[in-house]
Amino acid sequence: MTKIDQINERILRELARDGRVSNIDLADRVGLSPSACLRRVQELKRAGVITGYRAVINPAALNVGFIAYIGVGLSDHSKAAQEAFERSIASAPEVRECHNITGTIEYLLRIEVEDLASYKTFHTDVLGTLPQVNSLTSYVVLGSPKDERA
To answer: In degrees rounded to 5, what are phi and psi of residue 128?
Structure first.
């Protein structure tokens, strides 16, 4: 496995901030020669530390005006029930993230839709029809003072 030393940490931090930074600028920011910086980035990719790059998209540009997290409790805790729920959620474009978590519920979903009416439709017509779902708890996002997801 690749050693994550202070220089690699700086490289990762800079790439997380701007994945399109040129190698020359990245090298300058982390204090390496361009060739040494490129070797390190290539090794981080080869080792699976860097798995890809993403665009940060303005939700308003996609007409997303309502974001919520939903805690989902299942009525059946079997592997089959979890897999059926995950298959259903995978085909729902409103679900931007699905996390299987520990605690009193099984899943935490991040939902992005146009407005409250769209959210109600998703809540009722999608989640409300899944036989595995026992409980739903919604948490509406009012603001995101820190969001480092790309």
So the answer is: -65, -15
Q: What pairs with residue 72 in β-bridges?
A: 107, 136
User: 68 and 119: one domain?
Assistant: yes
Mean pLDDT of the chain: 95
Cα gap 24→41, rounded to integer Å? 12
Q: Residue 75: which of 125, 27, 135, 123 has the closest Cα?
A: 135
Q: What is the pLDDT of residues 126-142, one digit of tens each?
A: 999 999 999 999 999 99
Q: Going along the chain, which residue ranges are E strands? A: 66-74, 95-100, 107-113, 133-140
Q: What's the pTM?
A: 0.82
Residue 74 lies in a domain: yes
Cα–Cα dist 59/81, whole Å = 32
Task: Judge whether 53 lies within some domain.
Answer: no
